[in-house]
Design brief:
Length: 153
């Protein structure tokens, strides 16, 4: 186990220079990239979900790189540990697209639901997304909409 912090470039240089090893890592947004890179360098990579590594952390209150490294080392040595499969670049791109779309749908739903607020101030809501823009223009211009519901002038 190494207690040395690296930059991204330093990590790459370190991985290329080392003989083949087993590298445990906590899964995050860049873990799949690093797992692919380590595989190309000949290392065995073992990504684990963060919630599986968390119980192995000695100090639950102090989450830092050193404690995380010790927890990952302990977890990777467990005989019945579940490891994640490494996603390809195309799989990651598809997941990113789905995440962006889900966020867009969530925002649209929140916006549509937000139109009910002016309706509660005295005007009935005419349902559906097709009426959303003209509702927004009309309702936000009304003086009956509370100040927090209008855009700043």
């Amino acid at each position: 186990m190494y207690f040395k912090q690296f930059s991204f470039a330093g990590s790459a240089k370190w991985a290329v220079k080392r003989s083949r090893r087993t590298v445990g890592m906590e899964a995050c947004s860049s873990a799949h990239h690093w797992a692919r890179f380590l595989s190309d360098c000949g290392h065995a990579r073992k990504p684990m979900a963060a919630d599986i590594v968390a119980p192995f952390r000695k100090s639950q209150g102090a989450k830092n790189d050193r404690n995380d490294a010790q927890a990952i080392l302990t977890a990777v040595r467990q005989p019945d540990m579940r490891f994640l499969s490494v996603k390809s670049v195309d799989q990651q791109a598809m997941l990113a697209w789905h995440s962006a779309r889900a966020g867009s749908c969530r925002t649209r739903t929140e916006f549509s639901s937000g139109q009910l607020l002016p309706a509660k101030a005295g005007r009935p809501h005419r349902g559906g997304r097709c009426h959303r823009q003209d509702l927004t223009d009309k309702r936000l211009a009304e003086p009956r909409v509370p100040g927090g519901g209008r855009e700043p002038a």
